[in-house]
Every structure is written in structure tokens, then in C-alpha cells.
Amino acid sequence: MIEGPSVDRHHWVPRTEGGREAVAMHKVCHRMVHRVLDERTLARDYATAEALRSHPELRRFIAWVKKKPPDYIDWPKRTRRH
Fold it and tell me: Are 71 and 4 spatial neighbours (Cβ–Cβ below 8 Å)?
């Protein structure tokens, strides 16, 4: 999770699932998380940074996006939700 102008607030447990705690997350990463995982799955299985990093598709994405500058903004292509 990084700080800067390209940051959103990510709720570990989605608000629709009763979550309140939020952290700063890069906009591109935040968007990818929600493209890959539906809110119920996020709440049940991926409510921590470690859990998100363990997801195979997100792990590949993180490896790719780490090579970009911190202010990188581009939207990942659509992917199928799990």
C-alpha cells in the first residue's frame, strides 16, 4: 500500500458487508482488487493485505505494477471475477 496523489481508500471488509476499517491503496491496485474479487469473497477470504497478495491473479498483477512509477495511472483490462 502506498501513499500519494494516486491513492484511494480501500475497506478491508467492504462497507456493504459491514466493514469500516479502511487503508490507503493505489488507485490502480484498488480497481484491480475489485475487478478480480466480488465483495462477499473479499469480506470472507481477502480481508488483509497478506490475503490479497496471496491471490494468484493479484500476485501476478502486483509483480507487474511494481515496475511502474508510483504515480502510474492506467486501468487494467477487465478480468473475470472470482
Answer: yes
**Phi and psi at residue 22, to the nearest 5°:** -135, 155
Going from N- to C-terminal start, the domains of the chain cover 7-65
- Among residues 60, 59, 81, 74, the alpha carbon closest in space to that of 26 is found at 74
Q: What is the per-residue pLDDT across 24-56, written as a single tens digit (0 to 9) for each?
A: 888 889 999 999 999 999 999 999 999 999 999
The DSSP symbol for 7 reads: E
Q: Residue type for 74, please? A: D
Distance CA 47, CA 36 (A): 14
Task: Say if CB 6 and CB 73 are below 8 A apart.
Answer: yes
One-letter amino acid of 63: A
